[in-house]
Amino acid sequence: MPSRHSLHPVANNGDKRQAHKTSRYVPPSLRAEKMCKSCGRPFSWRRRWAKVWDEVKYCSDACRSAR
Question: What per-residue string of b and e applies to 46-60 under the rule 16 or more CB within 10 Å gives b?
Fold first, then answer.
């Protein structure tokens, strides 16, 4: 039976870049942005907003309550 670590992509070939390419990480500079309806500041996409990104209008709870 293979060890737990031998299944890890970095442990198999030692190439950290290849393991990074297969991840879902998106650098902040490439994430979608919107402008807050309350304060006018830009804010970027967050994973917790993935399913409701079209409905997000405010950058924070404080801005949403101050509308």
Answer: eeeeeeeeeebebbe
Whether 11 has a pLDDT exceeding 80, the answer reads no
Q: Is 44 helix (H, G, I), strand (E, B) or coil?
A: strand
Each domain of the chain, given as residue ranges in start order, spans 29-67
Residues in the chain: 67
DSSP state of 58: -
The helix (H) or strand (E) run that includes residue 33 is strand 33-35
- State the amino acid at position 27 in one-letter form: P
